[in-house]
Amino acid sequence: MIIDVITIFPELFVDFKNYGVIKEAFINKTVELNIYNLRDFTKDKHRKVDDKPYGGGNGMVMMVQPFYDAVKFIKEKNKIKDKDNQKVVLLTPRGEKLNQDKLKYFSKLQNIIFLCGRYEGIDERVSKIIADIEISIGDYILTGGELPAMVIIDGIIRLLPGVVHGEESVKIESFEDGLLEFPQYTRPAEFLGQKVPEVLISGNHKEIKKWRNMQSQEITKKRRPDLIDKSL
To answer: What gap in Å lies between CA 21 and CA 204, rounded to an integer?
Structure first.
């Protein structure tokens, strides 16, 4: 998999790929991450990538031309033959909300190109003629698309084969079966009067599985009832 990010702050990604299991994915070349500076693709001599909005208003709007030329350059470089395996993702609060199913979809692609916006917004033509998908990581506003890109990249990479040691653990996480994950415990067996449930130290794996399933259902009903209908 090749992941490309277009941003005006490439330095934000310097440390991102140096920690945790995703670091191993880059070392083992399971995935290739390329960070491109949008300013390298502007035709402005001052490397300007934004301008005042037509119609007036506060703030500055990022221009379409640098994004267009950057994506064109990346696509020509990557030479992905099957265009269904290559998607350009615009990170925006008005996009489709990110969930685990979308991460699974992204993890099957050969190439993803992330467009990170800043300032007051991005020229609408970026959405119309460049982006394939618009994604939001939640109903709130951030200063730019870099953090959402990192969130999605992290979520994608850990789904790739061989990245997470003990792949079975990925299958039982929250959202994998439409439910939130059951409670987990480790040593000590008692801490400040709080004991580990007896069933977990009983050695009865059938009962443990039953208990975990019941806990997942109860937690989901209490905290995310909206997920219950989807899992039925």
So the answer is: 32
